[in-house]
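Possible regression after last week's pipeline update?

I re-ran a chain I had predicted before the update to compare outputs. Posting the input and the new output here so someone can diff against the archived version. Not blocking, just want to make sure nothing changed silently.
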Amino acid sequence: MFVKDGAIVYIDSPESFLSVCEDEEEYQVDNDIRENDKKHDKIFKTLFYDKNEMANFLNYFFELNIKSKDLELQNPNFITKNYKYNQADILYKLKDREIYYLIEQQTSVDYSMPYRILNYCVETIRLAINGKNINNKYYKFPKVIPIVLYIGNTKWNASTSFVDCEVEYPELNFNSLDTKFKLIDLNNFKIEDLLKLNTMVANAMILEKCKNNDEVIENLKKILKNSTGKKAELIKLKQIITYLYSNINNIKQILNLIEESEVDETMSTVADRLREEYINKELNGISKGITQGIAQGISQGISQIIKNMLNYNVPEKDIMKYTKVNKQQFEKIKKELESETK
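New output (post-update):
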């Protein structure tokens, strides 16, 4: 299910999974594997609409024992009192209890987040108490537990508390507001830690940590080894990979191979097959470039191809053979790559 125009829309089958992410925008992924953060935003929002995923997420990061049946997905759209429209990413309520879990997902550091979270919490409470008699000494207001899932490349360095953002007044030993949020910074977790969670959200978090195609392949192998092998699970994983990393050559065919054969047998050859197909594709491109006269001197395109082939551990003699560069030119490009990766 997903929320659109203030209404909850249900997804009937695994094949429909993530289709909501592609309705409005088309993306082209270039050399930067993390270039389109909007795609990464939508992938997590879609995953969190699954109650099982949300329950496992809360149980892991908060050491709880919540059942998926105890969670109720709420409409996260707010109309504030000044009639401005706001939207939190995900909002759940515990069934038969006035406890709300609010998740806001970030791909970059937002220094206004304490204020935004404060607003989301206030609006959640305002909607929850609508029509209730709160003017009595026994009434208890709902508890809102805000969570920020941060998947940016750099560590989060903004405050997690609204108090820290207020003006200082040393003479007055009193904090007017004290709203804090739970920060889950992806940079603080190792792949091994996330594998223990063994959910699609955790798998997406693992793939978010990848900086290049090689890391995607290696981490995909770990995920598959940790997988139950169920068809629905592999379908979702396939859709996440192809949606996030469509620039990886022939990833669809490779994931099809994973579905059609024993996982243990396929995993050992995934990286080798991908590298072989990638290299062949690059070499075909080089041949066409030479035919068109691009190989006169070293074009920026061929220079990048050489760097890519080095990243794929192609032997140096083969690189120079197929790209028609001499030893001096090759060493120059190799040094450029080394300085870029430092």
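Follow-up from reviewer: compared with the archived run. The radius of gyration is 25 Å. Marking as no regression found.
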